[in-house]
Design a protein that fits this description.
signal, mainly beta, Ig_7, 6-stranded antiparallel sheet, Ig-like domain-containing protein
Length: 549
């Protein structure tokens, strides 16, 4: 019969041993193994020295990453009193390697000045390697850790070294007590191609390469303390990255442990954001065949370059910058903008459509001359050229608020004084208006120009086709003087064009009344055939009486 043993079947002593074994196994598996000393010797000397002591010497290298345990070297006042501890490394350090000592005094804030009474001496199997160095020497790299009670002292060896000796005392005894929290070996650092901070474009990978110091080997890690390397080699190819990632290089000389600190290599990931373009400048009015405009990026990101193109991929850069001022023809012109950081560009270019609409021509005023009596109003008219062009009426030459929009005619309010109105043309798209407004003056007279039976106000109009038509002295037809006359002129052969004058009476006429109109063709006898092109009609206000002859 097969018997199954479990952990619980073991006797208590063996179970305890098993737990201890598992604890040690897990500790070794999940913590970084740093090169430290493996043994030590210590000694003391001097004359009349009382109280010299070295306490817990092995705690100087007991793998306490938290720096809570320490060896204590206690000196005394006397003649040449000293205490020293010699720590033997697990391997031979080479020139350029560093021995890192974590030191303190146990008296709160560390007074670096007191460290002049303590020295470090490199050795190779008991033989001094170079001179000893005071702990406060500028030859050492000393930095205070958080709390300023422990200092990390970096001592760079100049030749093969397998021992380090720390001594307190000598001729003077300023420093009474020195704590050694830890001693670690740190190997010469590799040279990383491209530097310790590199940048790639999002969605790409890169190959990181480092050149190790002579006699060292490199492993790449995903964290500063992980024990399983990503690869043991001089180069490491990252996966495809979309966020910044830090990799760490561990340096070893002999198998089984690595240098005190790994070398971090930061891979920054550049992911330029497609720009957002302001709508300002995308709809413009052109006074000619071309017109300049200015386009701009909304909230440009510092460090990002914006490139402007005429195509959505490839092509030649038209300009670079947060703004671009192209000259475009009438119609719609497309531009495309990409964001770039170094060689990285946004996934797609942002399209910008610029629509340039022509500025319409000045409107043609049909009501060339208007004279009314005080207390009357007048109707003004004009025409615009171009499809969909509308007319707006104002009482100021620039600015102001339109009195009437989208209308070819405008009826004034009751007027008691002469007033000038202005008309502008506006395009059907883009809201482009004519370069200026055309004035139309309504002349207001306070007293009738003629008798109560004579017309006393007039409006002279031309239709849009009557380009060469004109009028002379239009008010002479209502001045009550039969010796003067208003003149209307049209070119010979004009088709579908006309000039007209509307005469207004103070007193309304009635059916059966007679209106006398005196006409003359200047320069000769009236040709009756001309009368075929002249017509008369009456209105009651704006209502046609259907009596044109």
């Amino acid at each position: 019969m097969k018997k199954i043993f479990t952990f619980c079947n073991l006797i208590p002593k063996k179970r305890l041993f098993g737990l201890l074994f598992l604890f040690l196994l897990c500790t070794n598996a999940f913590s970084q193994t740093v090169c430290r000393p493996v043994s030590q010797t210590n000694s003391q000397g001097g004359l009349l020295c009382v109280g010299l002591d070295i306490d817990s010497p092995a705690s100087a290298y007991d793998n306490d990453a938290g720096l809570t345990t320490y060896a204590t070297l206690t000196n005394a006042v006397g003649v040449g009193c000293f205490v020293q501890e010699t720590l033997t490394l697990n391997q031979t350090a080479k020139a350029g390697d560093q021995i890192v000592l974590y030191l303190g005094t146990g008296n709160g804030l560390l007074d670096v000045g007191l460290l002049s009474n303590a020295t470090i001496q490199a050795k190779l199997s008991g033989t001094n390697v170079g001179p000893s160095v005071a702990l406060n020497s500028p030859l050492l790299n000393l930095s205070l850790l958080s709390g300023n009670s422990i200092a990390a002292v970096r001592f760079t060896v100049t030749a093969d070294t397998n021992q380090i000796q720390v001594q307190v005392g000598g001729l003077l005894s300023l420093l009474v007590s020195l704590r050694i929290y830890d001693v670690r070996l740190d190997f010469a650092k590799p040279t990383v191609s491209g530097g310790l901070s590199q940048t790639i474009c999002s969605g790409n990978f890169t190959t990181l390469t480092a050149t190790p110091a002579a006699g060292t080997s490199l492993s790449w890690y995903s964290s500063a303390t992980s024990t399983t390397p990503l690869i043991t080699a001089n180069s490491y190819q990252t996966p495809v990255l979309t966020t910044a990632t830090t990799y760490y290089i561990g340096v070893t000389r002999a198998a089984g442990c690595e240098g005190s600190e790994r070398v971090p290599v930061v891979v920054n990931v550049s992911n330029p954001v497609a720009p957002v373009i302001s709508t300002v400048g995308t709809a413009i009015c052109s006074t000619g065949a071309t017109q300049q405009t200015t386009l701009s990026v909304i909230n440009p990101i510092p460090g990002t370059t914006y490139n402007w193109y005429s195509v959505n991929s490839g092509g030649t850069i038209l300009a670079s910058g947060d703004t671009y001022a192209p000259t475009v023809p009438v119609g719609t012109t497309n531009f495309f903008v990409e964001a770039a950081i170094g060689s990285c560009v946004s996934p797609a270019r942002t399209q910008v459509a610029v629509t340039s609409n022509p500025v319409p021509a000045l409107p043609t005023v049909l009501t060339q001359s208007v004279t009314i009596q005080s207390g009357q109003n007048a109707t003004l008219s004009a025409v615009a050229s171009g499809a969909g062009v509308t007319l707006n009426w104002y009482d100021v030459a620039t600015g102001g608020t339109a009195l009437l929009t989208n209308s070819a005619t405008f009826t004034t309010p009751i007027l008691v004084a002469t007033k000038t109105y202005y008309v502008e043309a506006q395009s059907a798209t883009g809201g482009c208006v004519s370069s200026s407004r055309v004035p139309v003056t309504v002349t207001v007279v306070n007293n009738p120009l003629g008798t109560c039976l004579e017309a006393n106000s007039q409006q002279t109009n031309f239709n849009g086709l009557c380009l060469l038509c004109g009028s002379t002295n239009p008010n002479n037809s209502v001045d009550g003087n039969p010796a003067t006359a208003a003149r209307l002129t049209i070119p010979v052969g004009l088709i579908n064009g006309y000039a007209q004058q509307t005469l207004q009476f103070n007193n309304p006429g009635r059916a059966g009344d007679i209106v006398d109109v005196e006409l003359e063709v200047p320069g000769g006898i009236l040709d009756l055939s001309v009368l075929n092109y002249i017509s008369l009609a009456t209105y009651n206000g704006a209502t046609f009486n259907n009596d044109r002859v």
